[in-house]
Amino acid sequence: MKAPQEVFAEYLAHENLKMTPQRRVILDTLLKKNDHLSSEELYALVKKRDASIGQATVYRTLKLLSDSGLIEPLDFADGVTRYEPCYGKDHHDHLICEKCGKNIEIVDEVIERRQEQLAKEHGFTLIRHKMYLYGLCPECRKK
Question: What is the pLDDT of residues 25-37, one digit of tens each?
Fold first, then answer.
């Protein structure tokens, strides 16, 4: 399996773009954090590493990283798009607390098989999917 940096460099070359030092810092920061980051959170982390990188560069690079298949945008229904690295990682879904925002990555083979069965029953071939389950975490239910 290729390194994410190599995959991104190849994607950029295919798009007639270059792997700039700024893009490398943004990618490396996102991979190092390995979390669900908003563009603003990523920008704050990147700014600590290289103060010359602007917010617009972070936004544009996030789009390129998403288009390259290295990261995916997440919608936790709080009005903030977050991004997580997905290249080389197994598929997972998310449990999200609607009160505190806590999220837990989950994998359930029974649900995965059922989704494939449902698609097949309706004549679909699944390409990808996202599943978000919203509720209240144990701590918020106690309050």
Answer: 999 999 998 789 9
Q: How far is 22 from 125, CA to CA, in rounded Å? A: 38
- pLDDT, one tens digit per residue, over 38-69 is 999 999 999 999 999 999 999 999 999 999 99
Closest-CA residue to 39 (of 21, 20, 17, 54)? 54
- Contact indicator for 35, 56 with CB cutoff of 8 Å: no
Alpha-carbon distance of 128 to 71, in angstroms, equals: 14
Length of the chain in terms of residues written: 143
Other C-beta atoms lying within 10 Å of the C-beta of residue 74: 19
Q: Rg of the chain's alpha carbons, rounded to an integer?
A: 17
